[in-house]
């Protein structure tokens, strides 16, 4: 399950808008990560960059890291609107997984 998508919201325009916004934020984060790595690569390959060029690249890198942090702060998972339906699904899942748990002994083990 993707924690950045609100799949429990059900059909409707609000859940579609939320999914679209989450997708746009994830794309922006990916592009920011690419830009940061390109700046780091440019700094490693630049021999005669000078102090001002290096400072400009480091400053741009810090701005991009700050923007990435701000975007990550907005991508918090939202709680489901219908808590009862989610609880029923979770109970069904736990009931289905119960046979897979460790077996319990009756206390009459041979030692």
Quick tags:
single chain, 111 residues, mainly alpha, 3 helices
Write structural notes for this entry.
The protein is mainly alpha-helical and 111 residues long. The protein has a domain at 13-78. It has helices at residues 13-45, 50-74, 83-97. α1 (13-45) runs antiparallel to α2 (50-74). It is elongated, with a radius of gyration of 24 Å. The two termini are 44 Å apart.
**First-to-last CA distance:** 44 Å
The major β-sheet equals:
none
Please count the beta strands (DSSP E, at least 2 residues each).
Answer: 0
| Helix content class | 55-70%
Average of the residue pLDDT scores: 75
The proportion of residues in beta strands is: under 5%
Tell me the overall shape: elongated
- Helical segment count: 3
Instruction: State Rg.
Output: 24 Å
Q: Write the H/E string, N to C.
A: HHH
Q: Unreliable stretches, pLDDT < 50, 5 or more residues? A: 5-13
Q: Find the structural class using helix and strand composition.
A: mainly alpha
Tell me briefly what this model is.
It contains three helices and no strands.
Please write out the topology:
Blueprint: H1 13-45, H2 50-74, H3 83-97
